[in-house]
């Protein structure tokens, strides 16, 4: 008896499925090779993005990650999409869009959290999910930084200039947004 599987090509909607933030549970892959050395999550996150750029991930997915000649077991816990409204200067919804499947891009943020009962020693800013506010967020207020006198029009121009560095060029093009030049 033969079993036939039908495989279909999956196309990502890059305006809705680029990963903004991904939370990953981490532990040593082999328990016999554990150590107490600190692992810098900022460097781990940069290495992760480099190794897995343009790779698809789903919540619950398990994978192996090599960092500093050590193997780690990873489990994708949570994925949030990038907010496409930053390109248009629209008000932020304030609600983060959770997605089940997404595509890692160069500006995705990865947050590592230690697995329960793990002896892994994590250091750095990417070790837990922090509430970071980006300057390209439509709710960003320059006056809170002590930069007064910047009106809404300037803020929109500034945000759009840097949004092109957050989203891949093909998404910016699809959304009909033009790059703001001259910075």
From TrEMBL:
A cellular-component GO term for this protein: Golgi stack
Cofactor note: Binds 1 Mg(2+) ion per subunit.
Enzyme type, top EC level: hydrolase
Gene3D superfamilies assigned: 3.10.330.10
Catalysed reactions, as listed in the record: ATP + H2O = ADP + phosphate + H(+)
Pfam families, alphabetized: CDC48_2 (PF02933)
Principal location: cytoplasm
Localization annotation: Cytoplasm
Name listed for the protein in its UniProt record: Vesicle-fusing ATPase
Organism: Myodes glareolus (Bank vole)
């Amino acid at each position: 008896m033969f079993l036939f599987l039908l495989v279909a090509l999956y196309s990502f909607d890059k305006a809705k499925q680029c990963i903004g933030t991904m939370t990953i549970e981490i532990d040593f892959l082999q328990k016999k090779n554990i150590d107490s050395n600190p692992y810098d999550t900022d460097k781990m996150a940069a290495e992760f993005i480099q190794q897995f750029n343009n790779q698809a991930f789903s919540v619950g997915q398990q994978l192996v990650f090599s960092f500093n000649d050590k193997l780690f077991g990873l489990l994708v816990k949570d994925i949030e999409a990038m907010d496409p409204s930053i390109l248009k200067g629209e008000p932020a919804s304030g609600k983060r869009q959770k997605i089940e499947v997404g595509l890692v891009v160069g500006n995705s943020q990865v947050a590592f959290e230690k697995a329960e009962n793990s002896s892994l020693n994590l250091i750095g800013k990417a070790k837990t999910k922090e509430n970071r506010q980006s300057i390209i967020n439509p709710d960003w207020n320059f006056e809170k930084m002590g930069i007064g006198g910047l009106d809404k029009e300037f803020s929109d121009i500034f945000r759009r200039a840097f949004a092109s560095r957050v989203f891949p060029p093909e998404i910016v093009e699809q959304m009909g947004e033009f790059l703001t030049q001259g910075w």
